[in-house]
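#help-structures

NK: newbie question. if I give both the sequence and a SMILES, will the prediction place the ligand too? trying with calcium ion
OV: yes, paste both and it writes out the complex. here, I ran yours:
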Amino acid sequence: MLLLLILVHLSSCGINSNHKKITSLKPENQLIKVRQSRSPIVIDALMNENVWTDAIWHPINQLWLGQPYTDKDFYGRYKLAWTEEALYLLAEITDDVLFDKEDNPLVAWWDDDCLEIFVDEDNSGGNHQYTHNAFAYHVALDGNVVDMSTSKEGKLYNTHIDSERKTNGQTTVWEVKISLYADTYEDDGNNVPVTLNRAKKIGFALAYCDNDGSSNRENFIGSIPVNGEDKNRGWIDSNIFGTLLLIK
Ligand SMILES: [Ca+2]
Ligand SMILES: [Ca+2]
Ligand SMILES: [Ca+2]
Ligand SMILES: [Ca+2]
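OV: that's the protein plus ligand as structure tokens.
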């Protein structure tokens, strides 16, 4: 029985012993339909494009790490849109203290206040801890974008994400363009973003690392419920991601 469970787990990683892709067992939780923008989206942290007016808000309200928090400490919601070129995100985050703990973007990047964007271009699910089967982009307050490389260390992926943020009082609006890359992505290669089309499905989740002045992040709040005791699974296991469906 144990062997069977291990085999099922391995097959859920999307790779079999011949390293060929097989049908994913990724659960299709939280299916979100995402509308195409008819006009270009300007990354300026202003939500005045028509597609943002029409899109609905989705909550970031699942406590993945830390103690229960108040709306004053953290409140977050987001909208999504797409063009053939990229996936677009608008996030509105209320956070009482913005804190960039480490100046160096590659030191403990998860302990700074940051937006964490999880994307699995082909919605395959499976392990992605040290692969590019999926990405977990940490977008820092200064705009630097970090994920784990295939060399098992933090690496800047600033060309994948174009973002702008504006803070008014304790509320920050982030407008983000996310170029999507296939699992064939090579850290030292020439990589071209994927062109998006209607009916495409993408694995996706969003989270916020909230630190208000502590030595480690205080809270990690995600957009999707995660089963089990350990809810900090997104950076390892893309099976916990939700699913986006691109529509006209
Ligand atoms: Ca805009
Ligand atoms: Ca806070
Ligand atoms: Ca994948
Ligand atoms: Ca904070």
